Amino acid sequence: MIILMSMIALLSNVLVSDGCDTGWFGSKCQYKCHCKIKCHINGDCQGPCEKGWFGYKCQYRDVALADTIRTDPPLEYVADFLKDDRNDLCVTSGTITIQWSRSYFIFLTRIVAPKPAIFYSVVRFLIKYNHSANVEEANITGIIIHQNTLDIYFSLNQPIDTLILQTDTAFMTCSLWVSTGRNVALKQNTEQSSTDDVSLSEPGKAVDGDKTTCSRTNKQDERSFWTITFDQFYFLRNVQTIFDGNHCLETSFIA
């Protein structure tokens, strides 16, 4: 396992382009701004990330939603404290469980704690698959500690539905985020076999970061296809596709 004790740039290949549309940045305008206030042209935020996003330049979607978190012993308003983006309000507990109704390939967990190095040394990270009772140790591939923030990176063979932080003694946690990775499909080159409406359903609509738009092939197209070509090599952890049964596609490729 690799242990790094300083912050590194997870998106070190992000270059600046001042010709992007509002809300986008990067050398090819391929990164969407998720700052709460506004983005600099290089993606830096003038303040915190918008709710539901975290990490370097706010590029990681948080799937540890408030209604998925519980503690043992049970604590009232635990999710409010862990999801309030404040590091001065913390929870003390022996176990924190995050349970989802669906399964995820977890990539990154970020924890804010008063003493993150000690936190990591005493807490066990456990996982469950398929809503079963069997519990396994999570495979941790690396950690990054920076001030009071602990980033933990996982490598999973299959998606999980439960993540458990557990120790024999109570530990203090101030904030908690979990991510499946980053959507690398945004603004990539796409093609499709046919287009229903050139202006409204072109292939790029599937990867434009807007869930209200989608690509759509012609209904008479019996051998319809849609392809994406990335600008570099990626190890894909997950592909999320919304297909409405009417030749309409919206998709995410998570790396």
TrEMBL record:
Species assigned in the record: Biomphalaria glabrata (Bloodfluke planorb)
UniProt keyword annotation of Signal present: yes
Q: Tell me which UniProt keywords the record has, alphabetically.
A: Signal
- Entry protein name: EGF-like domain-containing protein
Region (Disordered) spans which residues? Answer: 194-215
Q: Does the keyword Signal apply?
A: yes
Compositional bias ranges of the Basic and acidic residues kind: 205-215
Cross-referenced SUPFAM superfamilies:
Galactose-binding domain-like
Q: So which domain of life are we looking at?
A: Eukaryota
Q: Where is the signal peptide?
A: 1-19
